[in-house]
């Protein structure tokens, strides 16, 4: 099945010249936003395979489509292209020249901007993304999924229909993916995406590939919420002040971070000056 998955992605890449640059662009954007790559304690992230399959699925949903659905490819498969692995139909043409040229004439840049708008507007938790069907389906109840394990993002393998290729991605990562898509879509609608910046800032596609966020909003830092509630004004051994002092020492002196606690001052996170003004609710951070 892995071999047929690889052949399928190669077929899609050879079917239209826009597929490769669009796939590379989305993967580079996802790495820059911390949505893909090696997780650093935040749980599983989107894999390159899942991201590439999202690009394929997106191109299948355009009007007119850039790539045909898996069902259409199965119908175009000749006798020599028929294959079954583990009970799954893996039939599709080996030669992309059997496809008629797509009637979609959008540029790669236009498709990239549309990719972000498309996924930023989907309620992913309610949908089943099916490259086999080439469309998003209302997600049926678990009893009707045929062994497919649903998740915050349910992206069905094009051949092994009981496999959700994003099953291990946690809700927080999927939520960040949707949010980052909306931010990228907004950037693509602005002048920074279409015109060279007069201030020397990154613009166009490069503006999307800057680490952390869009250039205007990202300050290069991040927030660590402390799920702590102070008890009394003085605390005690192992109390709120001591915990904040320990966190401040580790961040500032051991890891060399620059700390600006939300709701306090720089000095309040370290040593005896730890303050009860640090955020008491995670939503405040």
From TrEMBL:
Q: Name one GO molecular function term.
A: metal ion binding
Q: Which GO terms describe its biological process?
A: RNA 3'-end processing
Entry-linked InterPro entries: PAP_assoc
Q: Where is this region: Disordered?
A: 266-285
Domain PAP-associated intervals? 109-163
**Could you tell me the superkingdom of the organism this chain comes from?**
Eukaryota
Q: Which UniProt keywords apply?
A: Magnesium, Metal-binding, Transferase
PANTHER family associated with the record: POLY A POLYMERASE CID PAP -RELATED (PTHR12271), SPECKLE TARGETED PIP5K1A-REGULATED POLY(A) POLYMERASE (PTHR12271:SF127)
Q: What is this protein called?
A: STPAP polymerase
Q: Which organism is it from?
A: Tachuris rubrigastra
Gene name per UniProt: Tut1
């Amino acid at each position: 099945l892995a071999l047929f998955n690889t052949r399928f992605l190669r077929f899609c890449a050879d079917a239209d010249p826009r597929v490769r640059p669009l796939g590379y662009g989305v993967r580079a954007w996802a790495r820059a936003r911390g949505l893909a790559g090696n997780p650093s304690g935040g749980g599983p992230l989107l894999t390159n395979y899942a991201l590439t399959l999202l690009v394929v699925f997106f191109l299948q949903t355009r009007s007119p489509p850039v790539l045909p659905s898996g069902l259409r490819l199965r119908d175009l498969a000749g006798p020599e292209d028929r294959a079954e692995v583990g009970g799954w139909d893996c039939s599709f043409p080996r030669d992309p020249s059997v496809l008629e040229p797509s009637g979609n004439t959008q540029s790669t840049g236009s498709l990239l901007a549309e990719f972000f708008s498309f996924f930023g507007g989907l309620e992913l938790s309610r949908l089943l993304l099916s490259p086999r069907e080439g469309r998003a389906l209302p997600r049926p109840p678990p009893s009707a999924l045929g062994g497919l394990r649903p998740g915050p993002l349910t992206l069905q393998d094009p051949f092994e229909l009981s496999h959700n290729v994003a099953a291990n991605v946690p809700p927080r990562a999927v939520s960040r993916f949707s949010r980052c898509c909306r931010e990228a879509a907004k950037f693509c609608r602005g002048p920074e995406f279409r015109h060279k910046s007069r201030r020397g800032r990154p613009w166009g596609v490069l503006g999307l590939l800057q680490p952390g966020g869009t250039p205007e909003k990202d300050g290069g830092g991040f927030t660590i919420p402390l799920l702590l509630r102070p008890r009394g004004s003085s605390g005690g051994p192992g109390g709120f002040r001591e915990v904040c002092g320990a966190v401040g020492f580790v961040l500032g002196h051991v890891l060399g971070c620059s700390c600006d606690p939300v709701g306090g001052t720089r000095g309040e996170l370290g040593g005896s000056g730890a303050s009860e003004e640090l955020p008491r609710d995670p939503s405040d951070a």
